[in-house]
Amino acid sequence: MGKVVMYASVSVDGFVADENDQPGPLFDWLTGGDVPLDDSGVVKVSQTSYDYIRPYWDRIGVTICGRHVFDLTDGWDGTPPSGVAHVVVVTHRPAPEDWNPQAPFHFVDGVKAAVDKARELAGDRLVEVAAGDVGGQVLAAGLVDEVRMDVVPVVFGSGKRFFGSVDAQHLLADPDVVIPGDRVLHLRYPVHPAGHEA
């Protein structure tokens, strides 16, 4: 069974977006390089970032996000982002009325159901959980194996937190990846086995 990874680009003070859901300069490192990260021609990173991010992207089978992210992106027009095979959306509402039922999106109620569905769909590939409120809930439920963050040198001061509304301490292991890139620091923390009980 694949790992469950919580992931996002984040400001040094822990925000994934500002109060208006805008990422500001958080994605500048994804467009400021000269090595294409995908076929879009838009996403270009440094060679260092490519060598770290591309193998990770290639291992993702399913992405879990909340309904808020789904709505903000207009459901990526029914095509999962970054070549991911499926998206599991945590929501208390049904799919939009005009939603294509053939699109590889799955709408579930609750984070435990989302992780179960994502693991079933992903097989031995990674399950990526978007950081923010849903990611924080998955972490609080003890279902995250690893936290990945791309730390961008900017201070937001306020906004949408990487760990959402988590209000308890969670112990992570020492980082096993620390890679400085251009305008980004790639970090990976295994979640301490008893981290959700701390």
UniProtKB/TrEMBL annotation:
SUPFAM superfamilies: Dihydrofolate reductase-like. InterPro entries: DHFR-like_dom_sf, RibDG_C. Residues 84-170 form the Bacterial bifunctional deaminase-reductase C-terminal domain. Pfam families: RibD_C (PF01872). This is Dihydrofolate reductase family protein.
